[in-house]
Amino acid sequence: MLGWRPFTAARPNRAHRSLARLQAHGALDELITQNVDGLHQRAGSRSVLDLHGRMDAVRCLACGAHEARAAFQARLERANPHWVEVGVIELRADSDAQLSTADFSDFVVPSCGACGGGPVKPDVVFFGGAIEPRVVALAAELVEACDALLVVGSTCSTYSAFRLVQRAVARAVPVGLLSLGPTRMH
Questions:
Q1: Of all helices (H) and strands (E), which one includes residue 161?
Q2: Ligand-binding site membership of 115 (annotated)
Q3: Are strands 97-99 and 88-91 parallel, antiparallel or unpaired?
Q4: At what angle do helices 159-170 and 133-145 cross, to 10 degrees?
Q5: Which residues does the annotation say bind Zn(2+) (predicted)?
Q6: Which of 14, 43, 86, 136 has the fewest CB neighbours in a 10 Å radius?
């Protein structure tokens, strides 16, 4: 809840805008991202597959209904007005926040707005979680159809990214990799 507002304040950077320009000029057909922030779309990219989901939505674990995170955030804040003032010690890029308190016993998580009883979570794949099979299949189809693969800003340390590169390499598709640090690829 406390990390949401700073998370939404993030803006696309030069890499996001450059990829959007490549797509706008026809040099890039599809974009598959592990990012959950929606910054590619905000930069202007139109055909984006969010491999790990998006933080701007929540999903009910009981009925599967989706709700905009902004609407859920408003419900969170109404249910927990005193939590808005809790101090944040550390804020991570994914909106996770380490707080100045360890007692969460009075924190209220609203139930699903659709079914009224289900627990909700951000509509993202958390570390160790499984990507939806339809998303995996769509990513595989995109890689199967590509004539080149450009990987930007990923170390390919997650298997979800690594296996897409492996798939392209197996097809003898040229792969370019731009990353600031070491990667899983050889």
A1: helix 159-170
A2: yes
A3: antiparallel
A4: 30
A5: 60, 63, 112, 115
A6: 14
**pTM for this predicted structure:** 0.86
DSSP 30-55: -EEE---S-HHHHHT--SEEETTEEE
Q: Tokens for 30?
A: 């599809």
Buried b / exposed e along 86-115 (16+ C-beta atoms within 10 A) = eeeeeeeeebebebeeeeeeeeeebebeee
Look up tokens 């939404």; give the residue. 8
Across the 186 residues of the chain, what is the mean pLDDT of every consecutive 10-residue run? 86 96 95 94 96 95 96 94 78 75 86 93 91 95 95 87 94 92 78
Name which of 54, 30, 39, 53 is nearest 168 in CA terms.
30
Catalytic residues: 52
Distance in angstroms (rounded) separating the CA atoms of residues 106 and 118: 19
Contacts of 58 (CB under 8 A, 6+ apart): 66, 67, 69, 72, 120, 121, 122, 123
Residue 156 known to bind ligand? no
Residue 66, beta-bridge partner list: 59
Largest CA distance in the chain: 57
Helix H or strand E encompassing 17: helix 14-24
